[in-house]
Amino acid sequence: MKHSKFIEMLKDIFEHSPWVAEKVWTYRPFASLTDLHEKMVFIVKDATYEEKLALIQAHPNLGARLEMSNASVQEQAGIGLNQLTSEEFNQFSSLNKQYMEKFGFPFIMAVKGQTKTVIYESMQRRSNHHEAEEFETALKEIEKIAYFRLEELIKKRSVLMSKKRTVSYGKGDVFAYRTFLSPLTGVKQIPESNFIGRSNTVFGVNVKIEVGGQKLLPSFTEGDNSLVVATDSMKNFVQRHLGRYEGATIEGFIQYVAEEFLKKYDHIDTIKIIGEEVPFEETTTTASANGLTRSDLVFKHSRNEKSIAKLELVRGEGTIDIVQQSSGVLDLQLIKVRGNSFVGFIRDEYTTLPEDSNRPLFIYLNIGWEYEDTGDSTGSAPYSYVCAEQVRDIATSIFHELETPSIQYLIYLIGCRVLERFPQLREVSFQSQNHTWDPVVEEIPNSEGKVYTEPRPPYGFQHFTVTKEDLGNSKELSGEINISK
Fold first, then answer.
1. Among the ranges given (54-58, 83-87, 303-307, 364-368), the one the predictor scored with the smallest mean pLDDT
2. Helix, strand, coil percent content, the chain, rounded in steps of 5
3. Cα(343)–Cα(12) distance, integer angstroms
4. Regarding the domain with residue range 3-162, which homologous superfamily does it belong to in the CATH classification?
5. Is the Cβ–Cβ distance between 308 and 276 less than 8 Å?
6. What's the CA gap between 436 and 428, in Å, rounded?
7. What are φ and ψ of residue 346, in 5° steps?
8. Given this chain, do its domains 3-162 and 168-478 carry the same CATH topology?
9. Of residues 52, 171, 272, 310, which has the active-site annotation?
10. Which of 5, 14, 47, 171 could cross-link with 51 by S-S, CB 3.0 to 4.6 Å?
11. Using omega within 30 degrees of 0 as the cis cutoff, is the peptide bond preceding 106 cis?
């Protein structure tokens, strides 16, 4: 979900306090409603006294006829507080005033399932509390209110989603190659990489395109193809638009294709498009008076890591909106022959793995990143564009520098370094796997080497997202990193 939509949806879960939603965004994804609620509660508990007080004071007086959030309006209406008699209104107003004068903040109670009488009696009783006690009680009630609001939100979204079934189709493995695309130049230089740009003499991409919309439903339910864009036409659309594309990146290309597709076919509501690099590497030649030089004619198809970009667009009211955009590097495989350990883990009756203070470590990495401003992702402003090659070089640099105690800590530090070098990014995510070789020959005379074989099929994996909040906590950034010997 797009950041702005996420905040808009959750901004009043805690009354007139969108800062809670802003902070909980970095904890995505959430396993459940309870998980989301617990993280939002943690943020409030971790807030300053002034922030907590402002949160409490943002709530309306119960029974008052004042401006309040839609959620508060519905909650109070649900138990009839919007239909008080003149006598009841005066009683609530008088007690609210006394409470406010004593504590400096309004009486707060999660009213769902309560009655006017119970609420009034509770207000009378709690007016006799000490301020500190009532402050904590108010926060506890706010936590309950937040949970009820989340439940109601999920219920409403479920009803809306149930009315719309998935209607989409598309084309995969759309390979397109172009020679002499515009080169990528002017990128930001970083200490970990000597990468300065791409010639794009050979630009290869494998595209998957998926389109959707309710107007396509008859093609599924009635066999009516009158609004169907054939997937073969999609293939042609992608390939021919590569010839018209004037940019220099995969991100820019798939956004150009997606926007043009929605302009061409106005009955299509959504488009998801993924572009994977088909990498080609430079070769060398002796056909030069200066000896061995790089060839500008011959390139070899690489089987190494590749860049990837994903984009989802939705048609709005006269607009085309970006719902999700991400970039990444796939299939980065790195082996470090020493300076890696794995010790201190739980040992019990199920443990057979020995501790190892110096092992080779073979890892597979998929690294993804999202921009604060999706406009930076296309490369139209090269200095703000993050190149997959530079992220790769940061990963190898950190791997080299670190005495690696675990893959988890390694990817955490890589993510922190990437965010440090590229502050235009919102977050960096990782999917990693441990494919460390199994030893065959442990000792070789007069050599520090060993003989290994492929590991047994089960492998360990990790998923983790590094956010900007991690930068201040990173030991690596404060100079406490252990350097390999």
1. 83-87
2. 40, 25, 35
3. 46
4. Oxo-4-hydroxy-4-carboxy-5-ureidoimidazoline decarboxylase (1.10.3330.10)
5. yes
6. 24
7. -60, 130
8. no
9. 171
10. 47
11. no
Is the CB of residue 410 less than 8 Å from the CB of residue 399? yes
Residue corresponding to tokens 């494919």:
435
Q: Is the pLDDT score of 484 beyond 50?
A: no
* Nearest Cα residue to 335 out of 389, 390, 399, 416: 399
Query: Per-domain residue ranges for the chain?
Result: 3-162, 168-478
Helices and strands per DSSP (H, E), number in the chain: 13, 12
The H-assigned helical ranges of 164-316 are 217-221, 231-244, 250-264
Exposed / middle / buried, residue 251 (Cβ in 10 Å: 0-12, 13-18, 19+): buried
423-473 confidence digits (pLDDT tens): 999 999 999 999 999 999 999 999 999 999 999 888 999 999 999 888 876
Q: How many CA atoms lie within 13 A of 7 on its CB side?
A: 10
Give the tens place of pLDDT for each residue, 370-428: 999 999 999 999 999 999 999 999 999 999 999 889 999 999 999 999 999 999 999 99
Q: Determine the Cα–Cα distance for residues 295 and 437; give it in Å rounded to an integer.
A: 36
For residue 175 the two structure tokens come to: 């390979």
Q: Which residues contact 438 (CB under 8 A, 6 or more apart)?
A: 452, 453, 454, 455, 456
Which helix (H) or strand (E) is 325 found in, with range?
strand 320-336
| Structure-block tokens of residue 381 | 């402003």
Q: For residue 311, what are its two tokens?
A: 């984009």
Q: What is the H or E stretch that residue 368 is in?
A: strand 361-371
450: phi then psi, degrees, rounded to nearest 5: -140, 170
- As a dihedral over the C-alpha atoms of residue 120, residue 123, residue 128, residue 131, rounded to 10 degrees, the angle is -170
What is the DSSP-derived secondary structure letter of residue 83? G
Euclidean distance between CA atoms 16 and 38, whole angstroms:
19
Burial class for 6, CB neighbours closer than 10 Å (0-12, 13-18, 19+) = middle
The position carrying tokens 């430079």 is: 282
Catalytic residue among 137, 201, 231, 285: 231
Q: Where are the beta strands (DSSP E) in 153-292?
A: 168-179, 202-212, 270-277, 280-285
Q: Judging by DSSP bridges, how do beta strands 202-212 and 270-277 pair with one another? A: antiparallel
Which tokens sit at 368?
A: 């993804």
Helix (H, G, I), strand (E, B) or coil at 213: coil
Answer for the pair 368, 327: CB distance below 8 angstroms, yes or no. Answer: yes
**Is 300 designated active site?**
no
**CA angle 343–349–350, rounded 5-degree value:** 70
What is 168-478's CATH number, 3.10.270.10, 3.40.50.1820, 3.40.50.720, 3.40.190.10?
Answer: 3.10.270.10
Residue owning tokens 């997606």: 258
Place of tokens 């930001």: 188
